[in-house]
Amino acid sequence: MNKSFRQSMAWLHTWAGLLLGWLLVAIFITGTSAYFREEITLWMQPEVHDSTLQPGTVELAMAALNAKAPDAKSWDINLPGPRQAAVELRWQPAKQPKNGGRQRGEQMLMDADSGEVVAPRATRGGNFLYRFHFELYGIDRLWARLLVCLATMFMLIAIISGVITHKKIFKDFFTFRPGKGQRSWLDAHNATAVLALPYHFMITYSGLLLFMTLIMPWGIDAAYEGDRRAFFSEVFSRGETPARPGAPEEMLAIGPLIEQTEARFGKPVERIQITNPNRDNAQITLQVDRDPAVTDRQRGGDPTQVFQGNTGDLIDTRIPANDPVSPGWRIYNFFTSVHMARFADPLTRWLFFLFGVAGSAMTVTGMLLWVSKRTQQLRRDQQPDRALKMVSGLNMASITGLMLAIAAYFLANRLLPVTLTAREDREIQIFFIVWLMSLVHGLLRPNRQGWIEQVAGASLLWLAIPVVNIFTTASHLFTPLAWQHAAIASFDLVCLILAALGGYTLWRLQHKPLPAKARRTRTPRAANTASSKQPAGDTP
User: Which of 83-87, 223-227, 486-490, 529-533 is the least confident region?
Assistant: First the structure.
């Protein structure tokens, strides 16, 4: 740190990006997939693909709940939408748990066409990748979140120091020189960094904000005397009061109430909640999705109408705009909402997905640049040391190894027996087994041949996903059912695109030219001899 300010920032940028770079790659890739976690879950449950919302779906859902839990404290019905095919039914049992703990609700899925209960294969779906993004897996949740926060802080430091270091960063964005080794990796690193620089800063800073109460709890502890539960209760309370028990009474038909709500808000009803069903004090709450907004995520809820269950009288109308939000909450909600993109329409989610890909590429190229730079600094007769080999192997496992593991996770969803015990855990175990195998392989073969083998394996696995899907389900690319829900067909198409990108990368690895200096100085015979003895730290 005794050098110039820019040189000091370059040192900080290098080591802040490298020390936790392997974890950051996993966080970025799994976080990018989380923009479509509901679509991933839908694809991983093919048993519900032929469910389609019909005019009589609500009546079928009410009949199913009446048969399953007629005396429940409440019913919840989530109707199918663009990201969900089946009807989700939830209810709170009337009896309290004997141990006095919190009452856990029950749930089931229903086919929207026939009203039959659907039992899809057990899977964590996209939620596993989503939760791995900020909680990892298999370790204590608190420590996992703290580790992710630490990695995110390192990422923010790397972004800021990188902007300071590269004084020609915007000029270099328009420069790319392929086939130049270290120079090419630096060009790619600069381009992917500048392409979505506001996104990179936003996603890291907002990620820290999401865990604000974890990493900076002192203000809450001081104001609430250490009672954080009281803080969250006050912040997220909606002023609801427990309902009193009522006498049995038949409820009104819900169809006219739905028509009234849809006419009031100009949108289809998405969620239905009934408290005290089949009683004289039953209340029917109908909700539609609110307009996209990035500042009112926590307050106001969705546009809602509440009706008396036995008379149909309108009790209350709730509109999010009528719920005031403080400037502080608006700022916090803005950053956290854009981080999770829950407000986004499909086009915006695809845009965020591409920015996430750019962020992943930025981290990947930075790690590969580190190895490439130190490999080229070796003398012609010098072999890489153990540290350089280890970094190259870890790079391989965190990049191609993770893509291998995710592809294996999706393939396991189609190939494991549907009735297998603890099936969702087996899918996750396969994910980590494949990832561990890629780590061992990368440490044993930390050279270009190792990269070729792992890229070839990843390309084959991603290609195998839509192929296996053809033989194991009735909702593949060549059936109308897959195109009925855009998410199902899009999933297979993305797998084919990833396989094609892997194939192109494999072709480039196998036809990578020698640097210009080596072509000028080596004779044909020497070049042939040297090509058979690649350095162990060689990068793709």
Answer: 529-533
Three-class DSSP labels, 22-59: HHHHHHHHHHHHHHHHHHHHHHCCHHHCCCCCCCCHHH
For 1-26, the DSSP string reads --S-HHHHHHHHHHHHHHHTHHHHHH
Helix/strand/coil percentages in the chain, nearest 5? 60, 10, 35
Token pair 């939760």 in the structure block, residue = 131
Type of residue at 209 = L
For residue range 198-251, list pLDDT tens digits in order.
888 999 999 998 888 888 888 888 888 777 777 777 766 554 444 556 688 888
Q: Long-range CB contacts (< 8 A, 24+ apart) of 408-417?
A: 408/433, 408/434, 408/461, 409/128, 410/44, 410/465, 410/495, 411/461, 411/464, 411/465, 411/468, 413/44, 413/121, 413/123, 414/465, 414/468, 414/469, 414/472, 414/473, 415/468, 415/472
User: Would you tell me how many other CB atoms lie within 10 Å of the CB of residue 331?
Assistant: 12
Q: What are phi and psi of 334, to 5 degrees?
A: -60, -50
Residue 290: which of 311, 274, 271, 277 has the closest Cα?
271
Put the strands of the sheet holding 74-78 in their side by side order. Answer: 117-118, 106-110, 87-92, 74-78, 269-275, 283-288, 304-308, 314-318
Contact partners, residue 479, CB within 8 Å, separation at least 6: none
Dump the DSSP string for 121-148.
Answer: PP--THHHHHHHHHH-SSS-HHHHHHHH
Residue 519 has pLDDT above 60, yes or no: no
Contact yes or no for 101/120 (Cβ under 8 A) = no
Do residues 498 and 462 lie in contact, with contact meaning Cβ atoms separated by under 8 Å?
A: yes
pLDDT-derived band at 525, boundaries 50, 70, 90: very low
Q: Which two tokens stand for residue 244?
A: 């009193």
**Nearest Cα to Cα of residue 321 among 334, 302, 335:** 302
CA distance 526 to 516: 15
Burial of 109 (C-beta count, 10 Å sphere; 0-12/13-18/19+): buried
Q: Following DSSP, what letter does each residue of 228-266 receive, concatenated?
A: HHHHHHHHH-----PPPP--B-PPPPSHHHHHHHHHHHS
Give the long-range contacts of residues 68-71, CB within 8 A, separation 24 or more.
68/108, 69/93, 69/106, 70/277, 70/278, 71/278
Give pLDDT, residue 528: 47
Residue 111 has a CB neighbour count (10 Å cut-off) of 22
CA separation (Å) from 450 to 378, 389, 436? 20, 12, 15
Give the type of residue at 217: P
Q: How far apart (Å, rounded) are the C-alpha atoms in residues 126 and 137? A: 14
150 membership: H or E segment, kind and range: helix 141-165
